[in-house]
Write a structure and sequence with these properties.
Chain A: One of its GO terms (molecular function) is L-isoleucine transmembrane transporter activity. The complex is a heterodimer of chains A (324) and B (322). Chain A has 324 residues and is mainly alpha-helical. Helix content of chain A is 67%, strand content 4%. Chain A contains eleven helices and four strands; from the N terminus they run ααααβββααααβααα. The relative contact order of chain B is 0.18. The chains are: A mainly alpha (324), B mainly alpha (322). Chains A and B meet through α1, α3, α4, α9 and α11 of A and α5, α10, α12 and α14 of B.
């Protein structure tokens, strides 16, 4: 492969891989605390994108119960500035985080109280996903919604430079996605690694019973975890939506599944693992030759299958899946 | 009566079909294996039948066999599903609990993407115009195929449970190490249970292709995996009637709710949430115990994988070290 192609693929891979990473972090946080996989995470991802869309555009097309509503008539000051878009993204992610807390409250906490089979928690979270996805469809229809084209205002033009006689184009969106993801990962790494809250979170993840004996309110930290998880999922949804448009209520399903591949690849419950897994899968997908691009969606699952057979604990995981 | 079958035949057949798919997941679960691979084998079986019934390459075979070609498709689907089950099962069954579930999800997704891109499977459009089995005129007549298959499967499952193999399945489920120490080979029985499920799902697929008239990559998806898992867990995972009741009921609910049109899928989701909250033993489990507490004093009264999965996040306890 020529150098220009290599650089191009690398950039594409890093951008999408960093989104996979922050999305998958949401999965892995919940898994590390509760030991269950929250299958509603993909739906939360979708919700985040829809929340942000509502805040910046506020206009719904011809299907669904909210059809024809226009929150911000043309010329509103709420569009066109990158800062407004950034604020909307943040609010969208907060909204997704709150929904995630609600999901914990309705679908997981009652299960925990009864000591129910974790498999049932899985079915319950799937039920929640079904409810969310179909409510979206009911309310705003199944259309593709694109963020306003002036979302980034003057930042819009893409960067491009020449290597040899080929031109490498890096979309501004990709740079923003990569930058935001890095910033989020740095903040999260700091919070979990260095602060008191992070220490308590890790204690709960390690052993909830002991943590509660040490005076840590386990329920409170579970709520914090779900908020963080939903925040990250919703943020990833908006970032992907910014790059590709929000493709209907089922937008998050593929990401939900790929996120599973990411966290298993990195090591279930491992935070650095989720980041590594995200980047590996993003890069692997970017380097699929264009002749085989139809098989791109299978790459993540092929990697998942192989890693499970070769090293079930994942790249950075420590506990043996054999005993699980 | 004719009228009844005209109106509800399709639904009835779909309910029986769902019960069968539930059972195909129930078999591996008997050996403690949470496998979500059923839709993969179901899709494979359907493609086998669809290709044998429509592809010009098999024209001569169809002419020579007449209606006998249908049972032949079931047989071929069963054999191929069984072989694929063996190929996937032997390595995958080293995994447990959620890891096996994820590996089988990956398997289903890979099969889906592959079938979406092959020309023999008709790519994204799929295969259509599949002839009706035995020249059936009405969809309800498929009860003549799915009904006996369900009865046979139930008899087989009941016999299996009483047999040595069935006891070995349960031994592996309850305590693999102890079973191994007693000379019951976990690998062997896990693979057996997995392959039985695969074969059943394959046959159901082969019968479903003519029933649905068309077959495409949408038949074997993650959603289907979850739907089938829900059949078993909501129906009850400890009794052969669980998957049957769960499959039939969960298939019927969206149809019964049809007057509620757009809301029915939302309600279907709520049913899943509420049922997993309030019927943790599944419908059959709850009914058959008559409200009495479970026999085993178990801190977490539940299905087969409770202890195994919930221990997965205690990464630093001694016995969890590699």
């Amino acid at each position: 492969m020529e150098l220009s192609g290599l650089v191009q693929n690398l950039m594409n891979g890093l951008a999408i891989g960093s989104v996979y990473a922050i999305f998958a972090l949401g999965y892995t946080l919940v898994f590390s605390i509760l030991g269950i996989i929250n299958f509603a995470h993909g739906a939360v991802f979708t919700l985040g994108a829809y929340f942000t869309y509502t805040l910046v555009a506020g206009q719904f097309e011809n299907n669904g119960l909210l059809k024809g509503i226009n929150l911000f008539p043309a010329g509103s000051p709420l569009s066109g500035s990158p800062w407004v878009f950034a604020a909307a993204t943040l609010l969208g992610a907060v909204g997704a985080g709150l929904i995630s807390v609600l999901i914990e409250r309705l679908a997981f906490r009652p299960m925990r109280a009864r000591g129910a089979d974790p498999l049932l928690a899985l079915v319950s979270s799937l039920g929640v996903a079904l409810v969310i996805v179909n409510l979206i469809q009911l309310l705003v229809g199944a259309e593709i919604y694109n963020f306003p084209s002036n979302a980034y205002g003057e930042l819009r033009p893409a960067l491009s430079f020449a290597i040899g006689d080929k031109i490498v184009v890096i979309r501004t969106v990709q740079v923003i996605i990569f930058g935001v993801s890095l910033a989020i990962l740095a903040v999260l790494g700091y919070v979990i690694g260095r602060t008191k809250i992070g220490k308590a979170l890790r204690a709960v993840a390690e052993n909830p019973t002991t943590a509660s004996l040490l005076g840590i309110s386990v329920d409170r930290f579970i709520v914090i975890t779900f908020f963080l998880s939903g925040f990250l999922g919703g943020l990833a949804g908006t970032l992907v939506g910014t790059a590709f448009g929000v493709a209907g209520p089922y937008f998050g399903v593929t990401y939900g599944l790929k996120g599973l591949a990411v966290i298993v690849l990195g090591g279930l419950g491992s935070i650095p693992g989720a980041v590594l897994g995200g980047l590996v899968i993003g890069l692997a997908e970017a380097f699929v030759p264009s002749d085989y691009s139809a098989y791109k969606d299978a790459v993540a699952f092929a990697l998942l299958f192989v890693i499970l057979l070769v090293r079930p604990q994942g790249l950075l995981g420590q506990n043996a899946a054999q005993k699980v | 009566m004719d009228n009844f079958f005209q109106s509800y035949g399709f639904l009835l057949v779909t309910m029986v079909q769902a019960a069968l798919l539930g059972l195909s997941l129930y078999f591996p679960l008997q050996a403690g294996q949470l496998s979500l691979a059923s839709p993969g084998f179901y899709a494979l079986g359907g493609y086998v039948a669809a290709i044998m019934l429509t592809n010009p390459a098999f024209g001569g075979l169809r002419d020579a066999l007449g209606n006998s070609v249908f049972p032949l498709t079931w047989l071929v689907a069963a054999v191929l599903s069984g072989l694929l089950g063996l190929v996937v099962g032997v390595p995958a069954l080293r995994l447990r609990g959620i890891y096996l579930a994820l590996a089988t999800i990956a398997f289903v997704e890979i099969l889906r993407v592959v079938s979406l891109n092959l020309s023999i499977t008709g790519g994204a459009i799929g295969i259509f115009g599949i002839p009706q089995a035995f020249g059936f005129q009405d969809r309800w007549q498929y009860l003549f195929l799915f009904g006996p298959l369900l009865i046979l499967t139930l008899i087989f499952a009941a016999q299996l449970e009483r047999s040595r193999v069935g006891r070995a399945f349960r031994a592996v489920r309850e305590d693999e190490l102890a079973a191994d120490a007693m000379g019951v080979s976990p690998t062997r029985y896990k693979v057996q249970a997995f392959v039985i499920g695969a074969v059943l799902a394959g046959i159901v697929g082969a019968m479903s292709a003519p029933f649905l008239n068309t077959w495409n990559a949408k038949q074997g998806t993650f959603d289907a995996s979850i739907a089938i898992l829900a059949f078993v867990l909501i129906g009850g995972s400890r009794n052969i009637w669980g998957p049957v009741v769960g499959g039939a009921l969960l298939t019927a609910i969206p149809e019964v709710l049809r007057p509620l049109a757009d809301w029915r899928l939302v309600i279907n989701g709520l049913v899943l949430v509420l049922a997993s909250l309030y019927l943790p033993q599944g419908i059959v489990g709850t009914l058959s115990r008559g409200g009495k507490p479970p026999k085993r004093p178990d801190p977490a009264p539940a299905g087969p994988n409770t202890e195994k999965i919930s221990s997965s996040h205690n990464s630093n306890t001694a016995e969890n070290r590699p």
